[in-house]
Amino acid sequence: MTGEVFANDPLLLSEVLRCYQPHCRYLRELTVEARGERATATGTFEIAESCYIDATGHLNSVEVNICYNQMLYQTIAVLVRHRVGPLFGGWTMDDYWRRQLPGILITRLDSEYRRPIDPRRFYGEFVLAGSQERISSTDGAPFTSLDTSFRCWDDAGGRCAGTVRLAIVDVAQPLGAVR
């Protein structure tokens, strides 16, 4: 089964990354392939200099998290714009902009680093594997749990990977503890 492929959309990417300081807009392009609820996005990154620390000579975990977020946000924006999938196909772009920062939360992030990655140019992959409707054990508020993963690599064999669980909460609800 082949999916729908959405080429890089520079205008949408510019809008999505507007919430970042200009020197922290690391994602240069992203292509998204969607098959039902599953989406895989592949992108290119460039980090001329770290946004918070002197040069270490390698990509570090803080910047990997920023890169993950940028792939996540752009992938969801593409799915919403093209009305793809059971979850994001029902959102409008206004829904997306309202939820982008306050309503999409990382609840668990596990990552491992195998070989140093040159931050000046590297690649990343984001995978949205599935979602579940859940109820918060703290306040009974409904939320959507997303299972995602990522990996990054460079041309010299540098690599890292991880898994991330997300919660999409109704921004009108108190955030509380999400499991």
From TrEMBL:
Its EC number is 4.3.2.11. It comes from the Bacteria. The keyword Lipid metabolism applies. Keywords: Fatty acid metabolism, Lipid metabolism, Lyase. It catalyses: a (3R)-3-[(carboxymethyl)amino]fatty acid + holo-[ACP] + H(+) = a (2E)-enoyl-[ACP] + glycine + H2O. InterPro entries: FcoT_ThioEstase, FcoT_ThioEstase_Rv0098-like_sf. The keyword Transcription does not apply. Belongs to the FcoT family. This is (2E)-enoyl-[ACP] glycyltransferase. It comes from Nocardia suismassiliense.
